From TrEMBL:
Subcellular location(s) of the protein: Nucleus
Name recorded for this polypeptide: tRNA (adenine(58)-N(1))-methyltransferase
Organism (species): Corchorus capsularis
Keywords, alphabetical: Methyltransferase, Nucleus, S-adenosyl-L-methionine, Transferase, tRNA processing
Catalytic activity: adenosine(58) in tRNA + S-adenosyl-L-methionine = N(1)-methyladenosine(58) in tRNA + S-adenosyl-L-homocysteine + H(+)
Region Disordered: start-end pairs: 261-291
EC primary class: transferase
InterPro entries: SAM-dependent_MTases_sf, TRM61_C, tRNA_MeTrfase_Gcd14
Lineage: Eukaryota, Viridiplantae, Streptophyta, Embryophyta, Tracheophyta
Predominant subcellular localization, coarse grouping: nucleus
Length: 310
């Protein structure tokens, strides 16, 4: 995923090897992470897929089963990993993650502190953003959850960029040895206002903090605490709407003259052959409509910048 350790790292520029982690793509809503083992076989509704047939193929390859079904073998990018990882907690998805990384001004070489780790969805994207010379320090109070996240980071090859700690940040704050080293801090806690004073001590001058909260009451309490040492306090809610764009066949002969239903207007230049095709009773049309499965509210993102000491 990230080119930091050539002996372990998955790179898009090389072929799949024994022991690699790949994302097996069946369709947009059916994917799974699989570790390649030369003697293993993947069984799914499309048939049997021998891992030995995958070795030596580049990422993105289309491979066939014994029944001539097929899947795609994709590299485990942070975006795909977010869709297939084990949900130990509620996770952040791509819309929130991309917004967080941009507003926290995270670039290669940054030092980022995160609490809590949870399922590691955001951590994986943070690691790619700070690579190859930055580092992410992530903390979770739950020891088993932290251990599981550590294993996931080893599987995806980002363990050299991430340090996982077991710590109650709300009660104890961040470790003193990280004081003044962080370019940015991310909080995903039930009571983030308890950790804000410690986060302020960790940040460099002009550093940025983000707090993710599902309830507006948490946001209000956090903002009250932020006003003492932070400025430029802003809160956002990211609502993502996806569309289905595909070809539909419309039976024009069944549309009454007085009906409000009509074929969509053509948006491109037509050839002479297309003009006659458009008049046929079952002509295809490209239509767009909102997806039936639309994600609603996930949480509120509150950003604030540490005040500079004159």
């Amino acid at each position: 995923m990230l080119l930091t350790d050539p002996s372990k790292k998955i790179s898009f520029n090389r072929c799949i090897r024994d022991g690699d982690l790949v994302i097996v793509y069946e369709r947009h809503d059916s994917m799974k992470a699989v570790k390649v083992c030369e003697t293993s076989v993947l069984q799914n509704r499309f048939g049997s897929f021998k891992h030995s047939d995958w070795i030596g193929k580049p990422f993105g390859s289309k491979v066939f089963s014994n029944k001539k079904g097929f899947v795609y073998l994709l590299a485990p990018t942070p975006e795909l990993w977010t869709l297939v990882l084990s949900h130990r907690t509620q996770i952040l998805y791509i819309a929130d993650i991309s917004f967080v990384i941009m507003y926290l001004e995270i670039v290669p070489g940054c030092v980022v502190l995160e609490s809590g780790t949870g399922s590691g969805s955001l951590t994986t994207s943070l690691a790619r953003a700070v690579a190859p010379t930055g580092h992410v320090y992530t903390f979770d109070f739950h020891e088993h959850r932290a251990a599981s996240a550590r294993e996931d980071f080893e599987r995806t090859g980002i363990d050299s960029l991430v340090t996982v700690g077991v710590r109650d940040i709300q009660g104890e704050g961040f470790p003193d040895e990280l004081s003044g080293l962080a370019d940015s801090v991310f909080l995903d806690l039930p009571q983030p206002w308890l950790a804000i004073p410690s986060a302020g001590k960790m940040l460099k001058q002009d550093g940025v903090l983000c707090s993710f909260s599902p309830c507006i009451e948490q946001v209000q309490r956090s903002c009250e605490t932020l006003r003492s040492n932070f400025t430029d306090i802003r809160t956002f809610e990211i609502l993502l709407r996806t569309y289905e764009v595909r070809e539909w066949r419309i039976n024009c002969s069944k549309i009454d003259e007085g009906s409000s239903i009509a074929p969509p207007p053509c948006k491109r230049r037509q050839t002479l052959g297309e003009e006659s095709a458009r008049d046929s009773p079952n002509s295809p049309a490209v239509m767009a409509r909102p997806s039936a499965e639309a994600k609603g509210h996930t949480g509120y993102l509150t950003f604030a910048r540490l005040k500079c000491i004159s």
